[in-house]
Amino acid sequence: MGISLGMPAVRSRTGAADASVPVPAGVPGLAVSDGLMDRFGRRATDMRLSLTDKCNLRCTYCMPAEGLQWLAKDNLLSRGEIVRLVRVGVEQLGIRELRLTGGEPLVRADLVDIIADLRAAHPELPISLTTNALGLDRKAAALKEAGLTRINVSLDSLHPGTFAQLTRRPFLERVLAGIEEAARVGLGLVKINAVLMRGINDAEAPDLLDWALQRGFELRFIEQMPLDADHGWTREGMVTAGDVRARLRERFVLAPDPRSRDGAPAERWQVFRPGSAEPAGTVGIIASVTEPFCADCRRTRITAEGQVRSCLFSHEETDLRALLRSDASDEQVALRWQEAMWGKPKAHGMDHVGLDAEDYVQPDRTMSAIGG
Ligand code: SAM
Ligand code: SF4
C-alpha cells in the first residue's frame, strides 16, 4: 500500500517510526466493538488461522508434486503473536470460534503449547483443528489434554492405492490410525472432509459415507475449488454437489436436515438406509462452487504470515504481522483487521452462469498457503 508523506506511522520494536506500517485509521462510522463487519452487513465471527504453509502430503488438488517454497520460520507468526491475535479477535472483535489449519498444522513443533496457551486464555472458546492426521496417533492425547475441542480430518479414499494417487504419499494406514486415536481420546465429534475427483475416487462416495456412519463420524464432501498450484481445476472435471448426491443416492436415502444451517458452509442431509425410518446419521456437502453460500459467510482468515484474507478467493491481503511486531496497541491491530474485513467482496466470482467464466482469476496462493 502506498503512503503519503507525513502519515503517522507506528514504531518498530527498535523504537524508530516505521513508515511502512501506517497507523490504522479504522472504518469511518464503525467502532471496534462493532466487530468484523463488511459493507454487505455480514459479521465474521469464525476465525481460520493457518499455523504453517508446510505439509507432508501432496494432494493433487492442493499442492504441486515437488512441494512449494516454504516460508522461513521468522516469517511465521510466533506462538506469542498467535495468542495475542486470537485474544484481540475474541476480546475486541467478537470472534466466537477458532479453527487452526495449514498447510499441515501437526508439523508445527509448538502446536500443543499454542493450544494450551489459547485454552488458558479462552476457557470456553471452541478450538478445532483441520489436519491430514499424519502423526495424530502420537499427538491426539496431548492435543486433547492441551484443550483442543475437536478435529476435522481430510480423507479422500479408503483404498491405499487411490489414497496414494491423490496424496502422492502411501500413508493411508497411518492416517486411519490417527483418526482412530483421536476418536479414542475424545476429540469428537470427528468430522471427515473428502474432496472427490472424477474418475479417481468419486465412485467411493457411498463407501466413505458407510465407513463414517459406522464410526459416528460426520462426513462432509467439499467441491473441488480452483485453488491448486497446478491449475488443474476444470469445470468439466470437478465433481459437483449434485453429482455427490446422485452417487450417495445409489445406496442411501437423503432428506434435508431439519436443523437450521446457521451460517455453516455445509448443507446437511439426513441419511437413511433403504427401508429404515431412523436416520443412520448425517452427511454434509460444501458446494462452494455450484451452490455458493457467500451471503452467509462468517469467516475471517489469517495466513501463517499474519495476513488477513477476507475471502478464500481474495486477491488482496492485509498485513497484521508488521503491526504485531511494532509497538502498535491491541486496538490498532483490531482496527486494521476491521479495515481488511470491511472490504470483503460480496461473492467469490465463480458463481456465474457457466462457472468457468473467463473473468474468474485464480488467486496466487494455493489452498495450502491460505489455510483451508
Ligand atoms: N492439511 C490439512 C488438511 O488437509 O486437512 C489442513 C489444510 S487443507 C488446505 C484444508 C482443507 O482444504 C482440506 O480438507 C482439503 O481437502 C481442502 N482443500 C485443499 N485444496 C482444495 C481444493 N482445491 N478444493 C477444495 N478443497 C481443498
Ligand atoms: Fe497438505 Fe492438506 Fe493440501 Fe493435502 S490438502 S496437500 S494435506 S495442505
From TrEMBL:
<dbReference type="InterPro" id="IPR050105">
    <property type="entry name" value="MoCo_biosynth_MoaA/MoaC"/>
</dbReference>
<keyword id="KW-0456">Lyase</keyword>
<dbReference type="InterPro" id="IPR007197">
    <property type="entry name" value="rSAM"/>
</dbReference>
<dbReference type="InterPro" id="IPR000385">
    <property type="entry name" value="MoaA_NifB_PqqE_Fe-S-bd_CS"/>
</dbReference>
<feature type="binding site">
    <location>
        <position position="294"/>
    </location>
    <ligand>
        <name>[4Fe-4S] cluster 2</name>
    </ligand>
</feature>
<dbReference type="GO" id="GO:1904047">
    <property type="term" value="F:S-adenosyl-L-methionine binding"/>
</dbReference>
<comment type="similarity">
    <text>Belongs to the radical SAM superfamily. MoaA family.</text>
</comment>
<feature type="binding site">
    <location>
        <position position="59"/>
    </location>
    <ligand>
        <name>[4Fe-4S] cluster 1</name>
    </ligand>
</feature>
<feature type="binding site">
    <location>
        <position position="191"/>
    </location>
    <ligand>
        <name>GTP</name>
    </ligand>
</feature>
<dbReference type="Pfam" id="PF04055">
    <property type="entry name" value="Radical_SAM"/>
</dbReference>
<feature type="binding site">
    <location>
        <position position="61"/>
    </location>
    <ligand>
        <name>S-adenosyl-L-methionine</name>
    </ligand>
</feature>
<feature type="binding site">
    <location>
        <position position="154"/>
    </location>
    <ligand>
        <name>S-adenosyl-L-methionine</name>
    </ligand>
</feature>
<keyword id="KW-0342">GTP-binding</keyword>
<dbReference type="InterPro" id="IPR006638">
    <property type="entry name" value="Elp3/MiaA/NifB-like_rSAM"/>
</dbReference>
<feature type="binding site">
    <location>
        <position position="55"/>
    </location>
    <ligand>
        <name>[4Fe-4S] cluster 1</name>
    </ligand>
</feature>
<dbReference type="GO" id="GO:0061799">
    <property type="term" value="F:cyclic pyranopterin monophosphate synthase activity"/>
</dbReference>
<keyword id="KW-0501">Molybdenum cofactor biosynthesis</keyword>
<keyword id="KW-0004">4Fe-4S</keyword>
<dbReference type="GO" id="GO:0051539">
    <property type="term" value="F:4 iron, 4 sulfur cluster binding"/>
</dbReference>
<feature type="binding site">
    <location>
        <position position="130"/>
    </location>
    <ligand>
        <name>GTP</name>
    </ligand>
</feature>
<comment type="subunit">
    <text>Monomer and homodimer.</text>
</comment>
<dbReference type="GO" id="GO:0005525">
    <property type="term" value="F:GTP binding"/>
</dbReference>
<keyword id="KW-0547">Nucleotide-binding</keyword>
<comment type="function">
    <text>Catalyzes the cyclization of GTP to (8S)-3',8-cyclo-7,8-dihydroguanosine 5'-triphosphate.</text>
</comment>
<dbReference type="InterPro" id="IPR058240">
    <property type="entry name" value="rSAM_sf"/>
</dbReference>
<feature type="binding site">
    <location>
        <position position="62"/>
    </location>
    <ligand>
        <name>[4Fe-4S] cluster 1</name>
    </ligand>
</feature>
<feature type="binding site">
    <location>
        <position position="48"/>
    </location>
    <ligand>
        <name>GTP</name>
    </ligand>
</feature>
<keyword id="KW-0479">Metal-binding</keyword>
<feature type="binding site">
    <location>
        <position position="225"/>
    </location>
    <ligand>
        <name>S-adenosyl-L-methionine</name>
    </ligand>
</feature>
<keyword id="KW-0411">Iron-sulfur</keyword>
<feature type="binding site">
    <location>
        <position position="99"/>
    </location>
    <ligand>
        <name>GTP</name>
    </ligand>
</feature>
<feature type="binding site">
    <location>
        <position position="311"/>
    </location>
    <ligand>
        <name>[4Fe-4S] cluster 2</name>
    </ligand>
</feature>
<protein>
    <recommendedName>
        <fullName>GTP 3',8-cyclase</fullName>
        <ecNumber>4.1.99.22</ecNumber>
    </recommendedName>
</protein>
<dbReference type="GO" id="GO:0046872">
    <property type="term" value="F:metal ion binding"/>
</dbReference>
<feature type="binding site">
    <location>
        <position position="297"/>
    </location>
    <ligand>
        <name>[4Fe-4S] cluster 2</name>
    </ligand>
</feature>
<comment type="pathway">
    <text>Cofactor biosynthesis; molybdopterin biosynthesis.</text>
</comment>
<dbReference type="InterPro" id="IPR013483">
    <property type="entry name" value="MoaA"/>
</dbReference>
<feature type="binding site">
    <location>
        <begin position="299"/>
        <end position="301"/>
    </location>
    <ligand>
        <name>GTP</name>
    </ligand>
</feature>
<feature type="binding site">
    <location>
        <position position="103"/>
    </location>
    <ligand>
        <name>S-adenosyl-L-methionine</name>
    </ligand>
</feature>
<dbReference type="InterPro" id="IPR010505">
    <property type="entry name" value="MoaA_twitch"/>
</dbReference>
<dbReference type="GO" id="GO:0061798">
    <property type="term" value="F:GTP 3',8'-cyclase activity"/>
</dbReference>
<feature type="domain" description="Radical SAM core">
    <location>
        <begin position="39"/>
        <end position="265"/>
    </location>
</feature>
